[in-house]
Specification:
Elements: H1 2-16, H2 19-33, H3 44-58, H4 64-77, H5 90-100, H6 150-166, H7 168-176, H8 179-187, H9 197-213, H10 215-222, H11 227-239, E1 241-245, E2 248-251, H12 267-283, H13 294-312, H14 318-332, E3 354-355, E4 358-359, H15 361-376, H16 380-383, H17 385-397, H18 399-409, H19 426-433, H20 439-452, H21 457-464, H22 466-476, H23 497-502, E5 506-507, E6 512-513, H24 526-545, E7 552-554, E8 560-562, H25 565-573
Antiparallel strand pairs: 1-2, 3-4, 5-6, 7-8
Helix pairs in contact: 1-2, 1-3, 2-4, 3-4, 4-6, 5-6, 6-7, 6-9, 8-9, 9-10, 9-12, 11-12, 11-13, 12-14, 13-14, 15-17, 17-18, 17-20, 19-20, 21-22, 24-25
Amino acid sequence: MAMKMDLNAIIEQIETGEQDSVLTALQSYINEMNQCFTFSKGEGQDRERLGELVLAFLNRELQPSCQLACLETVRILSRDKYCLDPFISRSAMSTLARYAGIAMAGSTTPSHNQPMEVQGEGEGGEEGEAAEVSSDVTNKTSSPSENPDQEVIVEALKSICNILLHNETGQVVAADLQLIKGVAERLKQCHDPTWNHEVRFFDLRLTFLLTALRVDVRAQLAQELHGVNLLGTQLDAALGLCWPDTLETARAGSEGVPPEELPLLTREQTELAMEILKILFNVTFDTTRRKVDEEEAAEYRHLGAILRHCLLSHADGDERNEEFHSHTVNLLGNLPLPCLDVLLMPKVQQGSIEYMGVNMDAVNMLLEFMEKRLDRGHKLKETLLPSLNLLTESARIHRETRKFLRSKVLPPLRDVKNRPEVGSALRNKLVRLMTHIDTDVKDCAAEFLFVLCKESVSRFIKYTGYGNAAGLLAARGLLRGGRGSGIYSEDEDSETEEYREARAQINPITGVVEEEQPNPMEGMTEEQKEYEAMKLVHMFDKLSRTNLIQPMQLGMDGRMREITPDDLNKLTHNPLFRPEDPANSDDDEAQ
């Protein structure tokens, strides 16, 4: 009750219209509620009334301290997703955009696009509060915008971010007001020292939310506002890059320094870079599904070179470093496949990993990142598949990448005593994934190994065992052997002496040499063998009729197909009958 009386008292003070009284009342509210993120429903109407009064007050001529207090109050109130009505009107959003310095004159074009679900990295904010990120950075330099107070700009940006995160109507209004154009204008000033870190960060956070929640804004940024080029320049500036050669990056002031000796990225650099990477992920979400022209390909190659630098850079703190690399890998997966050759372009330098005369630093980093995610074993579909898919597609189109990865993942086979899924080598870990409960995970692991085997069925079975390989082979219609549709060079598979000597004794199902087992039919007469065979057929027929199992057989096309009850009935009367043969083809029984 006391809190409600305080809120009513604040409302009464604001209704007086005296700036000093309003400032004192709002500052007391801010001090008490600044760390509050949950609100009681009983005070909802009072909070809405407070929001209306504060927004009306913002449309007056105010001293800077009063502007700041009003916007801090809006930022706190906008955390309550059930009391946003005062803030989602066109006039309210226009007022906040004006204080944020991103209002566009004459933005009256109605938008007919409905709010969309967040695609890609749908993290809008930490624990639901998109805008609450603190920073100790303060820059007292006056800005060239309509409102020179950068604290005011930041508070307005935080408020808009909260509104977008929680309310679809607010998202529609933001798109109508063309806020993306206003924020893009300021993003172009990435090399201007005027703007402090918080303004830059929340400009990017707002852009992320707009592109994540509105498909039309995403397309507008990508096409009309040349988003890939704009944000690539932002990323370049955030990382402090220079370009010693075409598509080859270095840290300004550290040219020629090996990647492992570069200084760690600061927290501020990493924060900005991760926001940019998330926006670029949204903007490029459909890139791999369409053809890109020559100009676009050049932009993506330029971006790819920056992403290569991100892969080889390290942030301050293990958790932040892994998150930074995760966003980098996610974005690399969106680039057109032919543009991934930029990962291999830098010259081989001292300390570089060289293979076939090519710099493999970036590919090796991706492999290590993938194995780290695999070892962790947590949410493999979300954490592992982006890097595993990226490695698979890179290996499919770049011979040097495939051969390097094969040397790391599928080295010449020497161990013929242990099953392919047993052991701590990367091959063993990936083969274990081929029987994972999640279909996407097992398919992706199998596809990666299949590509490393140049889609050769015999080689694939050699490294994984027929039992583990059967799922992919069945899906591809390759159970009878052969090769996939990929185009690869004709280099020979290398065989070790150990494998060559044991090859005849290897069980192709398990992929290892097994101890010779006694023949269960030893000592049986032909009549007894036939009796046991018919007994087994009847058991299968019974299980099939009760729908406990569905007997299958390998068709001539290399795919599995059902054995019908009629096929089983014929089999009980004629054990030599083959269901895939025509029913009247008696002459072919011996085939």
